[in-house]
Design brief:
The protein is an alpha+beta fold. It is 23% helix and 21% strand. It is built from nine helices and 19 strands. α2 crosses α5 (177-189).
């Protein structure tokens, strides 16, 4: 057994803590059954189930309805079309769908980020509990009134917005959205137990009386054109594969860089400062960790998938109750239990395999005005600019580009350009400077003076 192999299984104490957490969720939440899984480094390392019926506990192959987790799958389909050049996220909806005219100016990005201003639900009756054939046309999906807020101005969750995105996928691909999903996403990822309709073995949906320990059956409903907002059924085994994909990507489906783009926070956050949204992905901060994923609910079912990129951990919780168990908090706690009891083993530090003398000459101390920064050289010619006085939004990583510039990856300089302007003696010369988004970084505070915009007092530094 190698050193790495020794950490692929969870410790017995950790496994018991995970089981205790879902047992509490099932008992206090009064749900007929609950299934959960933890994924570490792309591999399912723990599964657990609880049931109110002895001898009939679900397993990793038991389907549950996953509700709005469906939206993650639709978002991936839209980004696939974008990456293929078949659409742009700034496209107005009307470029791809002739109807509904009232929503034709809304952009695909606004629909993905819930900033379109569309109503949260369709016009009545309650779409989650009524047949989809009551809404046969796309225009039947919108609320009354359809638009509640100015487009792009604020976050407002919209189920019809994702139904419209599903219709865009169908229009561009010329096939039903669920067929496209099966062919382009589920098949390549081996997710053969994720389907629009339930397939045995699957859990039955139940409502639990709020003041008595009695049940009411929740019959499954085919939601028609609203299906892209919450129709799918899946298992903890399949969602474990989905979590591994969302963390690392799969070039057969979507690249890691596009998935990273999807989980970047939008410019219009939720009012809750611990919650935000990316392109179809929910972002939260829980227990001191940044998590991404999505929750889901349909009559009779609750679902949650959270992923911690830093810890390379994911947790899935599925329950067959209309309300009761706090599946989101449970999934976050499962991540916390593993991360705190068995923290991730860092990868070994390794030196660079190639050294560029010009880049090596750039490393070290730089000054923006009087603020001191250290410039470090990382793998793949990546540069890291760090303010020496402590954490700062001006600190950032920069990715090397083919044209000899670098692009900021985070902080204040996210997306900004870093350019190296060599001095008369080359990169190591004292008059070499960095241009970072128009700001000049020099080897000495405010020097050489001729490089500093606006010049420098010719008397130089002096005592008072």
């Amino acid at each position: 057994m190698t050193t790495d192999d020794a950490f692929t299984e969870l410790l017995p104490e950790t496994r018991r803590a995970l089981l205790h957490r879902i047992a509490v969720a099932q008992s206090r939440g009064r749900t007929p059954s609950l299934a959960a899984a933890v994924v570490r480094d792309g591999r399912t390392v723990w599964t657990g189930t609880r049931s109110c019926v002895d001898g009939h506990a679900p397993d990793g192959d038991t389907q549950y309805r996953i509700g709005s987790l469906t939206k993650l799958f639709v978002a991936v389909l839209v980004l696939r079309l974008r990456d293929e050049g078949l659409l742009d996220l700034d496209d107005p909806l009307g470029r791809h769908l002739p109807e509904p005219a009232v929503a034709s100016d809304l952009t695909l990005a606004q629909l993905l980020t819930h900033t379109s201003g569309l109503a949260a639900e369709t016009r009545g009756p309650w779409w989650e509990r009524t047949p989809g054939d009551l809404r046969p046309e796309i225009t039947d999906l919108l609320g009354d009134p359809p638009l509640l807020h100015p487009a792009g101005r604020r976050f407002h969750y919209s189920n019809p917005g994702f139904a419209l995105l599903g219709a865009v996928v169908e229009e561009v691909r010329g096939a039903p959205w669920d067929e496209v999903l099966r062919r382009e996403v589920l098949g390549p990822l081996g997710m053969h137990r994720t389907t629009p309709e339930p397939r045995a073995p699957h859990a039955g949906g139940w409502a639990v009386h709020p003041f008595a320990d009695v049940l009411l059956s929740e019959p499954p409903t085919a939601t028609g054109r609203m299906a892209p907002a919450g129709q799918l059924w899946s298992t903890t085994d399949d969602l474990g594969r989905w979590a591994a994909f969302l963390l690392d990507g799969d070039d057969r489906v979507l690249s890691a860089s596009t998935l990273a783009e999807m989980r970047t926070a939008t410019a219009v956050p939720d009012r809750d400062r611990d919650r935000d949204w990316g392109l179809g992905i929910q972002l939260v901060r829980s227990g001191g960790r940044d998590l991404f994923g999505h929750g889901g609910s349909m009559p009779g079912f609750l679902a949650q998938l959270w992923i911690s990129e830093r810890d390379r951990l994911a947790a899935i919780v599925l329950a067959n109750a209309t309300s009761g168990p706090a599946v989101g908090a449970t999934a976050a706690d499962l991540i916390g239990i593993v991360a705190e009891r068995e923290p991730r083993i860092p990868e070994p530090w390794k030196p660079l395999t190639e050294v560029d003398p010009d880049l090596l000459a750039l490393t070290g101390l730089w000054f923006w005005g009087t603020s001191a920064f250290a410039l470090r050289l990382r793998a793949d010619r990546e540069l890291e600019l760090t303010m020496l006085d402590g954490p700062s939004a001006r600190s950032a990583r920069f990715r090397a580009e083919p044209d000899g510039t670098w692009t900021g990856l985070d902080g204040y300089y996210d997306g900004e350009k870093l350019r190296v302007v060599p001095g008369e003696g080359g990169f190591g010369a004292p008059d070499t400077h960095l241009d970072v988004g128009s700001f000049v970084f020099t080897r000495q505070p405010y020097g050489p003076g001729e490089l500093i915009p606006g010049g420098v007092d010719p008397e130089g530094w002096r005592a008072l």
